[in-house]
Amino acid sequence: MNYNKKTIRDVDVTGKKVLLRCDFNVPQDKETGAITSDKRIVAALPTIRYLLENGAAVIACSHLGKPKNGPDPKLSLAPVAERLSELLGQTVIFAHDVIGEDAKAKAAALQSGEIMLLENTRFEPGETKNDPALAKALADLADLYVSDAFGAVHRAHASTAGVAAYLPAVSGFLIQKELEFLGGAIFSPKRPLVAILGGSKVSSKIGVINNLLEIADTIIIGGGMAYTFSAALGGKVGDSLLEADWLDYSREMIEKAAAKGVKLLLPVDTVCADAFAPGANFQVVKAGEIPDGWQGLDIGPETVKLYCDAVADAGTVIWNGPMGVFEFPAFAKGTEAVAKALSHTSAITIIGGGDSAAAVEQLGYADQMTHISTGGGASLEFLEGKELPGVACLLDK
Ligand code: ADP
Ligand code: MG
Question: What is the reported pTM?
Answer without folding.
Answer: 0.90
